[in-house]
Amino acid sequence: MEHLTDEKKVEYLKLLTDALANEEIDRFRDEFLEMHPYDQAYVFEEQPEEIRHRIYTYLSPEEMAEILQHFDLDNIEPIITEMDPRYAVQILEEMPTDDAVDILNTLDKNIVASFLAIMKKEEATEIKNLLHYEEKTAGSIMTTEYVSVSSHMSVREAMLHLKQQAPDAETIYYVYVIDSDKRLVGVISLRDLIISDDDEPVKEIMSERIVSVSVGDDQEEVGHVMMDYDLLALPVVDFQNHLLGIITVDDIMDVMEEEASEDYSKLAAVADMERLDKNPFTAARKRIPWLVILLFLGMITASLISRFEEILNEKAILAVFIPLIAGMAGNTGTQALAVAVRGIATGELEKEGKRKLILREAGTGLITGLTCGILIVGIVYLWKGDLYLGFLVGITILATLFIATIAGAFIPLIMHFLKVDPAVASGPFITTINDIISILIYFGIATMFMHQLL
Fold it and tell me: How much is the pLDDT for 148?
């Protein structure tokens, strides 16, 4: 299966749409099943509901399950609910358990209950067990379809057992070793199992240095563990070290994308940016609450400026530099915020230390403030021929950049300490706070030097 370019996708879409319109089942299946499931999902999603109903009759539940695994979960509810419930249940039964659970979590509870009622008992039980775990934890994204062998087995017995379990397992690169109480005691790579002597005991070749996560661990922490240890799969255990399931690398990639999207949404002060809203009213409804909050915060800035109206009347040129000073403070604060949030999210902050981060950002703020301050003194003097005004703006730039940088780094650290998502300290909020600080510094210094300015 080749990777399809956008042009190729459009070409295939035309071809397959034509086959569907003419009800040419064999032609459609020949062309469609040659494509990668990701491209199949693209073609399927572009079809109107009437044509999608025809596709359901052309494809088996197993074939349809492959397609739905590549669907955006935000768009899957109308697809599942438009199907015949028995067909939808057969598709869910063909999926890896964790993928089926992800889809069911997007549906209404009454629909989920009706699906589970007509599902095979074994599959329904597995799904129910996973549905009980709290959202965004290791338990909610793990799969129970893994390969495990007993520590008392020989390599020959383990290989035979592996062949029996492999068709239903999501991955077989790691074989987990459990004791008689189903506690995780070791792990063997498939390679080690293949090259070992048939009569050698499993417990002699297994590694006891197991990297695992607890079922209640946050999914973002799980992602960092998998990246740090370069794992393709990660075992999930309970507090007594019983093996409950595994998390595979493809699921973690989805998690990291979801977390990055969520953090970016918060940094932009937008409620949800996981998908584009085609309806402007829906998009506006999500953004308005944040903008209203920022509007009231902006009124504080406006109120502060009005308090210095007398100074502005005496020296109107001061108003020219307000956007410059506020903008510089907001920009440098946002830069420091991004560095701090990234350090917290990637775990680098734990290695580097909070004090070192603050000191580094303070030094950065001092150097950038000093550089920009000296530069603006020269620019204002050449532009207006007023050295005192140049010094006023330069000192304000130095002070605001220094304080704004520290604030941008410090506020996320406080939030992290208080167990609040540091991404909530979004760019617009930091910018507004730094606007207030910069206005106070600017007019405070202007008040002190007003005699020289006049």
Answer: 93
